[in-house]
Amino acid sequence: MKYKVPVIPGDGIGPEIVAEGQKVAEAAGEKHGFDLEWIDYSLGADHYLKTGELVDEDTLKELSNYRGIYLGSIGDPRVKPGVLEKGVLLAMRFYFDQYVNLRPVKLLEGVWTPLKDKGPKDIDFTVVRENTEDFYIGIGSRSKAGTSRSEFEVKRNLYSVKFGLDVESDSEEIAYQIGMVSKEGTRRVIKYAFDLAMVRRKHLSSVDKANVLSDIYGFWREEFESIAAGYPEVETDYNFVDAITMWFVKNPEWFDVVVAPNMFGDIITDLGAMIQGGLGLAPGANINPEGTSMFEPIHGSAPKYKGMNKVNPIATIWAGAMLLEHLGERAASEDVVRAIETNIKRGEVRTYDMGGRNTTSEVGDDIAAIVLGKI
Ligand code: IPM
Ligand code: MN
């Protein structure tokens, strides 16, 4: 069996960490009898600075022939903040309609957590973050005193929406950003979360801010309620986003699957990463169950560590395990996660963030060797 997988190493530390993820995935392939053929795509800052292009339609079309893309990280200080993040990363999430952003928050055996008296049994949940709507639709502007009119459009595979906005203001200048959720977009991600809860511990927590942003998140809550009626076995609860940050710290054991709108999902998963041991350990997957998905660490491109062979590759290796599972290689995927756990438990080969002195590639070598049973 052979899988063709596009790889986008990206910016900053991206190339270094992705190389280790490839190494470990290949080791799992060797053990489980499959081959990986990587197809390199050089998207990101260098490509943009050289060509002025973020990601073109032809590349996107080509990438959509594959089930899973392996991504390092996007973002570079030479480019204005947001240009690459929106123009490459979000552009791909939207183009491929990767409406689920799956972020496991799992404390592995042997990892230190800042939460006192909590261990691996207590910290094991998954956040399902909606990934195509909410305040991420990119609609907003500024306008100076006076009157003005703007037209905006949201184009998705599911639907398209046009907004026309008349602004009349005597403030010196205003800025605004519009958040939007659709019935289709909300229901599909909540259903995904319920299905996931059904194969886990049958508990789903919804995140909103229906007490204040009641149009957008009151709608989210209503859809959640209506879908919950079809899953009587799943226990549910609602959480305001401010409160859930408190519960993640105080009682993480309460959670099994958490479903959140895009913006809140972004925020709470950085907190999730911290309680599972840090950003160096937190993987993510952008999923379109019927199309092209994309696997990446949830951390950024850490430009100050670029080329130093210093950062922790575990989040990316773990994202690689999620990619293998998505390709149907579940046993290989589980082996990779177990090997990560063994590496951590032994504590002999680790990067600085975990109190070690080893390099990025030494950690990758160690985990690959564990997968192959060589050490
Ligand atoms: C993430 C990141 C991105 C996001 C940025 C880089 C666009 O923070 O994947 O969580 O906000 O989704
Ligand atoms: Mn984020």
Automatic annotation (TrEMBL):
Which residue ranges does the record assign to the Isopropylmalate dehydrogenase-like domain?
4-367
Q: Which cofactor does it need?
A: Mn(2+); Mg(2+)
Question: Which parts of the chain span the membrane according to its record?
Answer: none
A UniProt-annotated Pfam family? Iso_dh
Q: Which domain of life is it from?
A: Archaea
Key word Nucleotide-binding present: no
The answer to whether the entry has keyword Transmembrane helix is: no
SMART domains for the chain: Iso_dh (SM01329)
List UniProt keywords, sorted A-Z: Manganese, Metal-binding, NAD, Oxidoreductase
Output this protein's name. Isocitrate/isopropylmalate dehydrogenase family protein
What organism is listed for this UniProt entry?
A: Candidatus Methanocrinis natronophilus
